[in-house]
Amino acid sequence: MGLYIRSNTIPVQSASPIILGIETSCDETSVAVLQGEKLLSNVISSQAVHIQFGGVVPELASRAHLRKIIPITEEALSQAGVTLSDVDVLAVTAGPGLVGALLVGVNFAKGLVLATGKPIIGIHHLEGHIYSNFLSHPEVAPPMLVLIVSGGHTLLVAMKAHLQYRVLGSTRDDAVGEAYDKVAKILGLGYPGGPVIDRLAQKGDPEFITFPKGLEKDDSFDFSYSGLKTAVLNYVRQAGETVVKDHLADICASFQKAAIDILVEKTIRAARTFGFRTITVAGGVAANSYLRSAIRKAGEAYHLQVYSPDMAFCMDNGAMIARAALERLRYGYFSNLALNAYPTLQLDMLD
Ligand code: KG4
Ligand code: ZN
Fold it and tell me: Is the pTM for the entire model greater than 0.85?
């Protein structure tokens, strides 16, 4: 995939370059300004238009990005107290994601290149999530094991050094965030489901029902969430409306336990198998209160350092894209105007 050209003559001289990070891969329009490792602004606009449909409608996402991208960029520059001419580098999510949504960000960034002559760096969306932990915890350093959990992805990544990734396992069907969203729909809790289930589960009994943990007996580091979602659906149908209403919090807590415990178990097993001392968690589901505490406790038990990003950096955001671009810049990676949107871009095939 021709995402990068390597250059010995780096077109940016500053040791603390100002990077404009643009993210439009799904349903958040976000732009951030980063100066060196210091975040100057991070403006996120979540698209409410999808709520009535219970999930992201791609065409509506593209249109909402088009409407928002200029005002959000102006807001990010203004909050940072800089102008476009102060910016040294443009960074934009090039994939994976919804093609129409990605195209808005990529073409907007390319337009800025044509207007200003600034260099551009295309960023893999998951590389952005990985680098969100470097925004929150500057002391974090590879080698590390990364658990990426979002609405579109569930994977375990071995990161031996900066920008070097090996995928150890991933979901064979639904992503964990997608399972939260689908279960919330089954329970009539609205979209997105993650935050609602997280909140309700705090008042529920996680032992109320034993739901199946996907690929629990499997030696691989893969995950599966379609069986769990079907088990919740079958339970809801059998139990009937009254039981479901009376035990909503218990059902949420039981689902959450099955969904999250398997993530924690496989992550700890992978860290011990491959000798990682540091674990980082990233993506929208990294905001989950049970996951954050369960993985921290499991890490303590095995003397592993566990990091989760600040809440603002869990959901899709421009800051993580700018932070990943800073690392690409340090190693001499650039893109050019041939940059395109790559809806199925693979993390371990970036070079
Ligand atoms: O990373 P993200 O903003 O977008 C993708 O790249 O997919 O993740 C969104 C996902 C949604 O599925 C949402 O339900 C889930 O993250 N999510 C949560 C929580 N907050 C957001 N899942 C569980 N618990 C939460 N607190
Ligand atoms: Zn994401």
Answer: yes
